[in-house]
Amino acid sequence: xxxxxxxxxxxxxxxxxxxxxxxxxxxxxxxxxxxxxxxxxxxxxxxxxxxxxxxxxxxxxxxxxxxxxxxxxxxxxxxxxxxxxxxxxxxxxxxxxxxxxxxxxxxxxx
Length: 110
Fold this sequence. Notes:
- There is one protein chain.
- 17% of the residues are buried.
- By secondary structure, this protein is mainly alpha-helical.
- Helix 3 (27-47) packs across helix 4 (56-76).
- It is built from 7 helices and no strands.
- The chain has one domain.
- InterPro entries: NifW.
- This is Nitrogenase-stabilizing/protective protein NifW.
- It comes from mine drainage metagenome.
- It holds the Pfam family NifW.
């Protein structure tokens, strides 16, 4: 693993990644969407991994590109529309419970 990758593995906040890779950002966008941005960044890296063995400047540029893309997704859209997390993917976050299941649950409590 590269030194750059090892350094980033220690980060926990979206702002750390954004600052380290030099991505300009609006703090309010990150405050509302930090987990979504990081998850989308991970998805972009999964779909288009940064090749090993690149010179550090090229590797940094590749990571920056994917993070910039993830950040922009939430500048132009929002978490509900982007559906990064499973809760938003499952019928837009709505779960249904049958009436029979609800009745059974209520009778068990009595």
